[in-house]
């Protein structure tokens, strides 16, 4: 099960919940103030995906793998 991050719009608390993917968009109750409707944060899902080519950040910080084109605007 993926881990999702939520933030309570009432008290501002952030918390994590393990949920099934089909439940990810369902309302969440804040564990702190019990307010319903905490919003999901787009987060940390792809922390370990170095496998997909073209999407990875270049070592120099150039977006979209521009560094690999041989004309890196960020270096040299
Ligand atoms: Zn709250």
Give a short summary of the structure.
This protein is an all-beta fold. The chain has strands at residues 3-7, 14-18, 39-41.
Walkthrough of the structure:
The chain has 76 residues and is mostly beta strands. It has a domain at 1-44. It has no helices and three strands. It has strands spanning 3-7, 14-18, 39-41. The protein has a three-stranded antiparallel beta sheet, with no helix packed on it. Strand 1 (3-7) and strand 2 form a beta hairpin. The radius of gyration is 18 Å and the shape is elongated. The model is unreliable at 49-55 (pLDDT under 50). It binds zinc ion. Zinc ion (ZN) binds next to loops.
What attributes does this structure have?
17% strand, three-stranded antiparallel sheet, 76 residues
Task: Tell me what portion of residues adopts beta-strand conformation.
Answer: 15-25%
Number of helices in the DSSP assignment: 0
Number of strands: 3
In order across it, which strands form the biggest sheet?
A: 2-1-3
């Amino acid at each position: 099960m993926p881990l999702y991050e939520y933030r309570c719009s009432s008290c501002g608390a952030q918390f994590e919940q393990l949920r099934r993917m089909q439940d990810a968009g369902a309302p969440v109750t804040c564990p702190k103030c019990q307010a319903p409707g905490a919003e999901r944060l787009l987060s940390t899902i792809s922390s370990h995906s170095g496998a997909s080519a073209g999407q990875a950040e270049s070592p120099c910080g150039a977006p979209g793998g521009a560094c690999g084109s041989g004309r890196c605007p960020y270096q040299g």
